[in-house]
Amino acid sequence: MEKYYITTAIAYTSRIPHIGNVYEAILTDSIARYKRAEGYDVYFLTGTDEHGQKIQDQAIEEGITPQEHVDHIAGEIRKIWDFMNVSYDQFIRTTDEDHKKVVQKIFKKLYDQGDIYKGAYEGAYCKPCESFWTETQLNDGKCPDCGGAVEQAKEEAYFLKLSNYADRLVEHYNTHPEFISPESRKNEMINNFIKPGLQDLCVSRTSFDWGIPVEFDPGHVTYVWIDALSNYISAIGYDVDGNHGEKYNNYWPADVHVIGKDIVRFHTIYWPIILMALDVELPKKVLGHPWLLTGTDKMSKSKGNVVYAHDLVEYFGLDAVRYYVLREMPYAQDGSFTYENMISRVNTDLANVLGNLVNRTVAMVNKYNDGVIQAPGVVLTEEEKAFDEDLINLAKVTVETVTAKMNEYKVADALEALWTLLRRSNKYIDETCPWILAKEEDKKDRLGTVLYNLLESIRISSVLLESFIPDTAKKIQEQINAVNVSFESAKSFDGTVVGSKVGVGEPLFARIDEAKKLEEIAADIEKKYPKEEKIEYPEIKPEITFDDFSKIDFRVAEIISVAKHKKADRLLVLQLKVGDDTRQVVSGIAEYFDPQELVGEKVILVANLKPVKLRGEKSEGMILAAESGKDLKLVTADMPAGSTVS
């Protein structure tokens, strides 16, 4: 059996992934399932990347250890993968002891042979991306990857000599044109990174300690590139000394690394060079898929447009979500998610085209033939013959087309070919009119042929659908009582068993009332993810001069007693000690404070404000407070009462 090794990028354990991140796992799963169906010995690796400064900082903020943080997030990621029916064979974590040992040995080998050397780094550093940049690489002084702020950093570090392998890497690109897909990604690597000259890569850090230690130099931890990228070989038993495990000998080199377009550089420059330095065969392909956007924007918590897989499944169902992200994502351009488009896909593709076809067909077999599948072959006219041949030929071509598109990793195109067959099957019902054939006794055999052809088209479609929406495919096979469901059986139009009985037809996907569903989703989002109330701040008052400001006498004043105003619920009457004096101030803060809690507070008083009467009570000054929305706090100072404030 021919082997097939496929991987996702390992998910970073800084946060719970959104549907744009989960798309990669679903995409990879569809490819892995298809290859298994074709008869390949598939090994599907996924997992989590768990080291780095960002994770250490997050753990400190949470008041837990980095290990506790990554244990939680990695566990949640694995639950999501399982929830989305991702059929991985192994889930690796970079905190696994076996992985850490392999990384340490790789680092030592590269150092011993002179590919890694010790130096110091000084330059712009982006903490979210954990990347160093030169000034020329920055975009308007910001990180070229995420657009975020960078900070100047300097520290001792080890470096990998990328430049030593640049020519060999370009030669590999030229002799293996299939190595990077899509083609545009390869051009980007050559023009933006290799031609300007590869700078040596920082591969250790000393400013944090949450990482795999460099064994021969305490204080250094292995930086993300060697640590994370090495998971593709450490997971399957690679050994620096050549004592590789059985899985490594069987599956390496990887057939394809499926990754996001934002990390193509790491997988097509850094990773191949690491492997070249280790004298390890390179993977056959790196597939840099595009992003799934929210509308036209990249998903971002700061933008408030993040969509989570669990929520989508709650709203639409598991296979509907899998189908949408696979169908909506082009091969080379970014895809788009909107709730409106999601509802449209469910109603049009899943409920109308697929669900209606299966439901009508099963219902007709039960109604007209007591559920028994009749033998095909009866053709009464040339027109009927043309209808049958057109459907049968398209079914056979569809298997070939879907296979060709999947081998090119054009999953959306494969689904379009499959839906062309489903639409053609619905048209076949309209052409042959089974309900009319059922009314005439001499056309019952023709009716049996029509229903057989429909069942056979549905059976073939269900076999192909198993790679994309596996639960739905199984439901279809149960409803039509399909026995032959191997991939090989889909290549011929004769796999439906004559004389067997279909099951009970049940709706696969319900049509959605768009307006009602959008209203429900909006209410649920507001409940689950309430937006922070936007605070409207007043405009800054007109400028004053220093002389104007110097006329104000600010003093520290201690509140010695507080009483509610007898004639105004919003007002409090405060007695303040200011040096040797006592002042009375009336303030509109009653709704914010319990009067007794204020006693003893040292506040800031405008001491030379002209006294006024407020609802009959004399007020000799004003105390300072800061207001934000519905929140108000007094400005205080821990200084003796009477102290000046300047």
Write the layout of secondary structure elements.
Elements: E1 3-8, E2 11-12, H1 19-38, E3 41-49, H2 53-62, H3 66-83, E4 90-93, H4 97-112, E5 116-126, E6 131-133, E7 151-160, H5 166-175, E8 180-181, H6 183-194, E9 201-202, E10 204-205, E11 212-213, E12 221-222, H7 224-229, H8 231-234, H9 246-251, E13 256-260, H10 264-278, E14 286-289, E15 292-294, H11 309-316, H12 318-328, E16 335-337, H13 339-369, H14 382-407, H15 411-432, H16 434-437, H17 444-465, H18 470-480, H19 514-528, H20 546-550, E17 554-564, E18 572-578, E19 581-587, H21 595-598, E20 602-606, E21 612-614, E22 617-619, E23 622-623, E24 625-628, E25 631-634, E26 644-645
Parallel strand pairs: 1-3, 1-13, 2-3, 3-4, 8-14, 13-14, 15-16
Antiparallel strand pairs: 5-6, 5-7, 7-9, 10-12, 11-12, 17-18, 17-20, 17-26, 18-19, 20-23, 21-22, 24-25
Helix pairs in contact: 2-3, 6-10, 11-12, 13-15, 13-17, 14-15, 14-17, 15-17, 17-18
